[in-house]
Amino acid sequence: MKGRLVITLKEALKLSKEELTQLKEDLKKKIEARPELNGYIDVNNVGDGVPIAIKDNIQVKDWSVTSGSKILQGYIAPYNATVINKMLQAGLSPFGRTNMDEFAMGSTTESSFYGKTQNPHNPERVPGGSSGGSAAVVGAGLAIAALGSDTGGSIRQPASFCGIVGMKPTYGRVSRYGLSSYASSLDQIGPMTQNVEDAAILYDIISGSDEKDSTNAQKDDKVVPNLNPDRKLTIAILPDFIKDASDDVQQAYQKAIEALKAKGHTIVEKTMMDAKFDISAYYITATAEATTNLARYDGIRYGNRVEGKNLEETFIKTRSEGFGDEVKRRILLGNFVLSSGYYEAYYVKAQKTRHIIKDNYAKIFEDVDLILSPVAPTIANKFGELANPMDMYLSDLYTISINLAGLPALSLPISKSKEGMPVGLQLIANAYDEQTLFDGSLSLERAINYQK
Fold first, then answer.
1. Which of 93, 107, 112, 130 is catalytic?
2. pLDDT attached to residue 92
3. Which residue is catalytic, options 69, 93, 111, 154?
4. Number of folded domains that form the chain
5. What CATH number does the domain containing 189 carry?
6. Is 99 a member of any domain?
């Protein structure tokens, strides 16, 4: 990519200790010069390695980690997340906490306790969410790379909106130990970088086995040593699936198809089940799990407490004042679908639908190596456009089925809209086939040669 605002991760790993110290000073000055972006909550540094921005829901020892919420003000992380320890061992340094939607619930970073983050390409537009801060600082050249978390597209959608690369690993490939839980069966930490090769480097560093995470896949194979953009792959396209996407997204899709053909890849047409089933299954599953995970935030064990006359009133006041509207909405929905009268009708049915979605992907992957899909139906929305919660939920149309199926996917910039906004697409691979995902993504990136 031309017109880079900051050096790449690959280049930064070759710098001396003195050069890295100077790089961090330069980054701090650039961050201070753009306070209106609001991508960083604060800028701390651990160690003397390559600086990597960290989403505000990943534990870094002795940092204030708040998941973008009022209820966690005052909480100091007592330990490092596994991904942070892996980074430190590899010569990387956590550098700055990035803004996010409260408890990772949202698609715009507007629900954060710290206020909204701007899109680096247009201050009137959202950076996406929930990892909007991480995407914005990488897109603005205020970070070499960042970590985000993806529950239903929260790495890939902001990456697409901000013109960077965002990768969601296979569920279980990256330890969730030290990640504040939103929906435990969907959450996954992943890299947000300037290019595909940097994403592969950061993925290799943070992935791998971890005894502290019972859902970890206990696999330690690396992708960077075997990166091969010249592999000829069979890639599925989804003509019916993209019919609801905007003209900008459809044009980017056609551009990517032609670029892949020019690189010698085989393109085949496939069909996906209607995305309305994905949305229903996802929001029932995610809110049910969120309700359970957020029950611990009660003002007693940690975080902010609002005193009441008795224990019950303390619970009610703490949670009423500590949680924002979107978090409350999802807690209410989660409690509803788990209640005794509705558990079978909603939650159980959602799990059956989730199985069907997984089978749908498995059938497609019998014939292909990768699937090319949109990331979002439109370019980055303007602030306030998704004020209706249903509109926000529908904006996750193309990303959530991948989390439900536990698959790896990577979003990369393809073109720009008429307004000059980035348009990203994603490649999806079969479970545990990150190697093919990165090979195909690197091939597409080189064929497109996206100009920032």
1. 130
2. 97
3. 154
4. 1
5. 3.90.1300.10
6. yes
